[in-house]
Amino acid sequence: MIEQARSSRIERNGNSVFLAVAGEFTCYAESGGPWGTAGHRHPAWTLTLSADGPLTAVDDSGAKVQAAGILVPPHHFHTTTGEIAATTLWIDPHHLRVPGAPRIHALDSTQVRRLLAAITTDFDPDPLRHSLRETFGDPPPADPRITYALTATEDELQMAPRTLDLSPRRLRQLAQAHFHGPLAPLRRWHRLREAGLQLPYQPAAEVAATSGFADQPHLIRTSMAFCGRTPASSPAAANYRPPR
After folding, report:
1. For 202-206, what is the mean pLDDT?
2. Between the CA of residue 9 and those of 6, 28, 29, what are the distances in Å?
3. Band of residue 52 on the pLDDT scale cut at 50, 70, 90
4. Would you say 80 and 55 are in contact if contact means Cβ atoms under 8 Å apart?
5. Domain 6-140+182-233: what homologous superfamily?
6. pTM (predicted TM-score)
7. 77: Cβ–Cβ under 8 A, 6 or more apart, which residues?
8. Distance between CA atoms of 50 and 42, rounded to whole angstroms?
């Protein structure tokens, strides 16, 4: 897992985009609007914040939430729209705990301002962790075995049952309990966030290859499935070219 923050701020075509990854957090902040996502399911918690206007999220049951901040649980189908700039944080599922049945949660403007203030220019994860604890309470205790399985290389993952002294079945059960779903989608998300850091600076086909995707269309499908947007929808992806 990337604990040392990596971030960049990009100004293009009148838009400002902030991209950052640190530890369990991924951040994407874009100026301007309006904007929106197609329906999607993300393997991490999705926290979208706007200090200047309401956001709207709708799930597959038709439940609609409009608020300054929207929190969506892992694997919960939804769309999100906003009229102005917003910041989206994705939080690995085992680092946040919200009681109750899975649903879209609304955050008020005070909570949103506190969380936005914790996103520093160098994307230090500690202030953000502190602010999330203030807002949602303490996260569940981390299991080092499941953290290892998330960050291991493919070869290490093949050996994980022996390395961790766990049967493959028990490893799947641990992943389900900690990640609210299978291990594979979250590992794929970590590859996608790595690709997102590279897309402003390298051709998308090269990014797909170096980030562990089969090809550029595989990268696009994963972005749509997890984020409801293609890489081309971001003004940060100046080097992105859709495949022909």
Report:
1. 91
2. 11, 10, 9
3. confident
4. yes
5. Jelly Rolls (2.60.120.10)
6. 0.92
7. 39, 40, 41, 59, 60
8. 20
